[in-house]
Amino acid sequence: xxxxxxxxxxxxxxxxxYDPAIAAKIVDASGVGQEDTVVELxxxxxxxxxxxxxxxxxxxxxxxxxxxxxELARQFExxxxxxxxxxxxxxxxxxxxxxxxxTGLLAARNLERCVLMGNIPYNLTREVLFSFLVDEYEIxxxxxxxxxxxxxxxxxxxxxxxxxxxTSVILQSFYSIQPVLKVAPGSFxxxxxxxxVVLSFKPLPEPxxxxxxxxxxxxxxxxxxxxxxxxxxxxxxxxxELPEMALKKIHAATGIxxxxxPEELSNLAFLQISRSLAEVTKx
Length: 283
Fold this sequence. Notes:
Structural class: alpha/beta
Shape: elongated
Radius of gyration: 21 Å
CATH class of the largest domain: Alpha Beta
CATH superfamily of the largest domain: Vaccinia Virus protein VP39
Helix content: 25-40%
Distance between the termini: 61 Å
Order of helices and strands: EHEHEHEHEHEHHEEEHHHH
Number of domains: 2
Strand content: 15-25%
Number of strands: 9
Number of helices: 11
Oligomer: single chain
């Protein structure tokens, strides 16, 4: 499908990468091969799907736009007939990826883990990242995702950085995250107003947060950063209605100065406070 043949739909937030050299770099960085299953989020016109298929990986390409889905199916018409080995490993699904369970998608095909790839719509970034990379952490082999550069900068930022925040703390508790490459607005059609970046997410050997701790941990991180100009002490006191004695117990248990602000804390420090908070609020 040529660029002029398709009119992007605003409701889907569509910005299509059209530079095959950039697509090739992303696929090369992923290192996927014939043993891998790739779930591609928002396959669009197949700019990533094609080089991925040439790696002989199994691909489940998800696309919400029916017109694009039909075109993808035509591109990979060898699917299942034995004439094209690469295309035979591509499955195109017309679905809204924000409404699916990756775990269910894989289980229905007797698969356990996947490499996640795609260009995440700017208006859905946090929702998608938390849903797939955190809630379904156990089935992620790795992920290579294109994001708005500003969002990517936040995700990889260290404690003390001006842009260190909720996504930084939570995602870095599960993954080693590295920038792969920057992508200029001119590499997309229609051209977005901002630059993009591809990040790689490699699961940590063990996630920092246990499943049973996750809800409390995320709630704490959000509460503290929503009041990032306040001290940790003051936010804990008001958000959780803690008496001074409980705050002293948290300080004693963690050794963390609660007069600090949230952007100064490591993800481990957040976890220590979260665990101590669970103890002092236990009924």
